[in-house]
Design goal:
Elements lengths: L2 H14 L10 H29 L4 E5 L3 E4 L2 H7 L3 H10 L4 H6 L4 E3 L3 H15 L4 E6 L7 E5 L2 E5 L12 E12 L2 E5 L2 E5 L2 E13 L6 E11 L5 H5 L3 H12 L16 H25 L6 H4 E6 L6 H12 L4 H11 E4 L10 E3 H7 L1 H18 L7 E2 L2 E3 H7 L3 E4 L2 H9 L3 H6 L4 E3 L6 H7 L2 H11 L20 H26 L8 E6 L8 H17 L8 E6 L7 H18 L8 E4 L6 H7 L5 E4 L11 H7 L3 E4 L5 H8 L5 E2 L4 H8 L4 H8 L1 H12 L11 H10 L4 H18 L3 H12 L6 H13 L11
Helix pairs in contact: 1-2, 1-4, 3-18, 6-32, 9-11, 11-12, 11-14, 13-14, 19-20, 21-22, 21-28, 21-30, 27-30, 28-29
Bound molecules: ligand 26Q.
Ligand 26Q binds next to α6.
Length: 794
């Protein structure tokens, strides 16, 4: 497409789709017009892919996820369709600012963090690899809340991404599926009819997901909850206006908001309803499609692979059994076998508080037939394994992890360490019974968004150096290695990073009114706020460093900017205190005339995908400092390494694999191993002991306790200080000393010529962390799916 063709398409949509003319159009209208012009280019390759997957009778992958953390879509589509020149040219021609238009798009924030973003990367990779697939989730009216700071405190505001027209979806009123809850069960022999007492409708909305070079496109189908019977005219006519609208409001509640907790809000009825709602709608849709193409349900596992992203869709097990056994008359044991061979389950956490459990009473009320089937599935499992231990049901609760394991033919962890720990801890017994069921698929990230699109300077350098093949074959980045000796390459590598830092510094100045020196180390920790991720350890180190600079302000300190980003779950009190402390510390440090040249703290509010795209390319240092054994994988860690930041990190999650690949000398390792953590925890005096041994740590904690960062309320941080001294479950104190050592090693290495070599090695050796590699692994080890044959560039 030429710039002038693009311009005509934009003008056409401006007038005929948006009903605006050039003289009255706002930035929103231009963005929508550009989006529709780009969308037009998506439709043909998308239809083409759909037609070919039907015609070829190809096996399809169904990815069931409560979350898809997509971010913006326009730039992604432009890049994958290679329309940058056309779009930029057209915008220039129209006298518009291209960058500004792209940034006008709100993020689609239909997820909390890593798990949701992984689902989005997977969707893009499945399209790039021409893997016939469909994503299924919920079309939340409100995605993850917007975060504001008020006097340093986190305030949550509703997120309204659907207030504006959403250019990328196609409403499918004809894809409407009835979903029931509650009611009673009538048993007929071993089978049963379920008569729900409450019904609503799941309506589909389809978003095309186009892969690299437009070679293939899959669909993301998100369900919206609609009332079965709209509005009650009789009541309205009686003047009862609120009651007339009530059923509608009630039904719509189901897809109203994303739960903002990224562990589990235990036991919430609405959450269980959301889980069943989208899972049941998706399964019905999948079976309908299957039955339109094939007539033998026994072949389901050959033609469909259904992936459960964590236990959130775990009700898929019993529901699929119910559809096959109760509704289609298949023998129970056979139904379980077919369901199991179709389903697989990804585990994303070992934290005990994060494993989903549902109260049997609640489950029985909402899903009476499913609870019966869960008992039978459990019994069958006990019979098959000769085990006498009840697995999926325990003291009045249904354990969704165990249920998912029993109902899946493959269960995967998301990094080598995490998979290993799964076998040794939560799933120890089940692993012994089914030793080949657990497999590892280390996470990855899509290089189209996380390098090509977010870091154009580094991308151009890479393409000029090794050609363009890396974009869909990321391991080609290895070809950069010989150039790491070449001083002109290294200069350009450093210049790209430096320019990204200047851009970020300008944004900090303009948007946050904080000035930072781009010569400083840009040290970044961005992720949800959690005790196990240990933002508070990073803060204590910052405070200790600050105190030391104050002791001796002229000692030639290496300047640093500590950058934090992340949201706390609204109900997670400790995490919210960490948010507030970070802001309070920033306030004191940034205004300290003795130290602010050397140390600043920046905490931009409302961390999201778009902000990550801005921060990661400008980072020198990536903070991956979770307590070993707690972070299942991490994926931010991969994005940083790919963009030439060095990691300071523990041997946790995928950090282990990153360090193996980029080599130990290009990684700042510190801290206890997962085994050492478990050992040390047995010593109840671990925190006190660590504090007694490290005067810097003691002083930092004392400074927090003293009210230095909260003079108006000196007791504000006693809670944090007490927790660290007496409890410290996540071993902040015991790892602090080694963390400090590693940080000073960073100071020593930064600014030396070798730093750029180390950074370049990180980029050159991170190719394995492409989500294309991850998806190939799922296709081979779990889904038994093949890419569509002969796909060409659009
Ligand atoms: C469950 C029930 C009720 C309410 C909320 C939830 C819920 C929601 C989100 C539970 C968990 C999540 C999200 C978990 C998550 O993001 N886990 C991360 O997954 C990444 C991708 O595998 C890993 O890289 C991270 O290590 C892991 O923490």
């Amino acid at each position: 497409m030429t710039p002038s063709e693009m311009k005509n398409a934009i003008l056409h949509h401006l007038v005929y789709t948006l009903g605006k003319d050039v003289s009255t159009a706002h930035i929103y209208d231009w963005r929508m017009a550009l989006s529709f012009a780009v969308r037009d280019q998506i439709v043909d390759p998308w239809f083409g892919a759909t037609r070919r997957s039907y015609a070829g009778k190809l096996k399809r992958v169904y990815y069931l996820s409560m979350e898809f953390l997509i971010g913006r879509l326009l730039k992604d589509a432009i890049i994958n369709l290679r329309l940058e020149d056309a779009a930029l040219g057209a915008m220039n021609d129209l006298g518009l600012n291209y960058e500004q238009i792209l940034e006008d798009e709100p993020d689609a924030a239909l997820g909390n963090g890593g798990l949701g973003r992984l689902a989005a990367c997977f969707m893009e990779s499945m399209s790039t690899l021409a893997c016939p697939a469909m994503g299924y989730g919920i079309r939340y009216e409100h995605g993850l809340f917007r975060q504001r700071f008020e006097d340093g405190r986190q305030v949550e505001e509703p997120e309204d991404w659907l207030n504006q027209r959403h250019a990328w979806e196609f409403e499918r009123p004809e894809v409407a599926i009835d979903i029931g809850f509650g009611g009673h069960v009538q048993e007929i022999g071993k089978r049963a009819n379920w008569y729900p007492s409450e019904m609503l409708i799941a309506m589909g909305h389809d978003t095309p997901v186009i892969g690299w070079k437009g070679r293939w496109g899959n669909t993301l189908r998100l369900w919206e909850a609609r009332p079965m019977h709209g509005f009650d005219l009789q009541r309205f006519n009686r003047g009862d206006y609120a009651a007339a609208a009530e059923p509608e409001a009630l039904a719509r509640t189901l897809s109203r908001v994303l739960y903002p907790d990224d562990t589990t809000e235990q036991g919430k009825e609405l959450r269980l309803k959301q889980e069943f709602f989208f899972t049941a709608a998706s399964l019905r849709d999948i079976l309908r499609r299957f039955e339109s193409e094939y007539n033998d349900l026994k072949r389901l596992p050959q033609k469909a692979a259904i992936q459960m992203n964590d236990t959130h869709p775990a009700i898929a097990g019993p529901e699929l059994v119910r559809l096959l056994h109760d509704e289609r008359g298949m023998d129970f044991e056979e139904a379980v076998g077919i369901a199991r061979n179709t389903l697989s389950y990804t585990n994303h956490t070992l934290l005990p508080e994060a494993l989903e459990r549902w109260d049997e009473g609640l489950m029985g009320r909402l899903l009476p037939r499913h609870l019966q089937l869960i008992y039978r599935i459990n019994e069958l499992h006990m019979k098959d394994t000769g085990s006498r231990k009840v697995t999926a049901v325990e003291d009045g609760h249904v354990k969704m992890g165990e249920l998912s394991f029993i109902m899946a033919h493959k269960v995967n962890g998301v990094s080598a360490l995490h998979t290993d720990l799964m076998k040794k801890t939560v799933f120890k017994d089940l692993h012994e019974q089914h030793p080949t069921r657990i497999v590892n698929e280390t996470n990855g990230v899509t290089p189209r968004r996380w390098l090509l699109s977010c870091n154009p300077r580094l991308s151009s350098l890479i393409t000029e150096t090794i050609g363009e093949g890396w974009v869909d074959n990321l391991e080609q980045l290895e070809r950069l290695e010989p150039h790491i000796k070449d001083s002109s390459f290294l200069e350009r590598f450093a210049a790209a990073k430096r320019a990204n830092k200047v851009d970020l510094a300008r944004w900090f100045a303009d948007d946050l009114k904080i000035s930072v020196d781009p010569e400083s180390i840009f040290d970044v920790q961005i992720k949800r706020i959690h005790e196990y991720k240990r933002q508070h350890m990073n803060l204590l180190e910052t405070i200790a460093h600050w105190l030391e600079i104050r002791d001796n302000p002229n000692a030639g300190w290496v300047p640093r900017v500590k950058i934090f980003g992340g949201k706390a779950a609204p109900g997670y009190v400790f995490a919210k205190e960490i948010v507030r402390l970070t802001n309070d510390v920033a306030k004191v440090l940034n205004s300290d005339p003795l130290t602010s040249r050397y140390l600043k703290v920046v905490y931009p509010p409302n961390y999201n995908v778009s902000l990550a795209e801005r921060l990661i390319p400008a980072a020198d240092l990536s903070e991956q400092i979770s307590t070993a054994g707690k972070e299942a994988s991490g994926t931010g860690n991969m994005k940083f390494a790919l963009n030439g930041a060095l990691t300071i990190g523990t041997l946790d999650g995928a950090n282990v694999e990153i360090r193996d690949l980029v080599k130990a000398e290009n990684f700042f390792l510190f801290g206890m191993t997962a085994e050492e953590v478990m050992e040390r925890r047995k010593d109840s005096g671990h925190a006190a002991e660590a504090i007694a041994k490290d005067s810097r740590l003691a002083r930092a904690i004392e400074t927090v306790r003293s009210g230095r960062f909260s003079p108006e309320e000196p007791g504000r941080y006693h809670g944090i200080a007490d927790n660290l001294t007496h409890h410290d479950y996540f071993m902040v104190c015991s790892d602090f000393t080694d963390f400090w050592r590693a940080q000073r090693e960073v100071d020593g290495a930064f600014g030396k010529p070798n730093w750029t070599c180390m950074a370049a090695y990180n980029t050159a050796r991170s190719g394995w962390f492409s989500s294309d590699r991850t998806i190939r692994g799922y296709m081979a080890d779990i889904w038994n799916a093949a890419p569509a044959p002969e796909v060409e560039d659009a």
